[in-house]
Structures are given as structure tokens and as C-alpha cells.
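This section describes the prediction task in plain terms. A model, or a person checking by hand, is given the sequence of a single protein chain and must write out its three-dimensional structure as a string of C-alpha cells. No templates, partner chains or ligands are provided. The sample shown here is typical of the held-out split.
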Amino acid sequence: MASRAAGLQVPAFRSPPRRTGAVRSIRRLAGGTIVAVRISGRSVVDIERDMVDGVLAANSLTGEAAFRMRNTLLTALADAAGSAAA
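The expected answer:
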């Protein structure tokens, strides 16, 4: 929701990546972007960061814009986790 609210395109997510041994991968297709993230054996924090980085890559964000949006998206995830725990 935070990605859409910021006007970003939200990629499709899947797991695991097709490439053996890859932790994450990105595929750009005519109809959109697919971000694949390995879940098994990884911490929730690492998975969330890879997903956020996938959103940034799918939207070609770099530099200061990427830094700000990464913080915004990670904060939104933390807030959502806090709400779910309450």
C-alpha cells in the first residue's frame, strides 16, 4: 500500500528465484516486473529488505530518492508489523 501511495509501480513477487543459489532476482517483462526472493532459511528482516529493494529497482530509483523511499517503505512495514501484533 505504501508503494502505491507513493505513486510507485508495485512489482509481482514470487519465491524462490529461478536461478539456483540466488537470494533475489528481478525480471523485467513487457507487462511489468517480477521480483523473486528466497524465503527459506532467512530472517523476516532480510526478506523485507529484499522486497523493498525490489520495489526500488523496479521503479529505477537511485541515490537520494531511493534512500528516502527505502526508509519510507521500511517504516511502513514496521508500522504494519506493530499493528498486527497489537
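For orientation: The first helix runs from residue 2 to 5.
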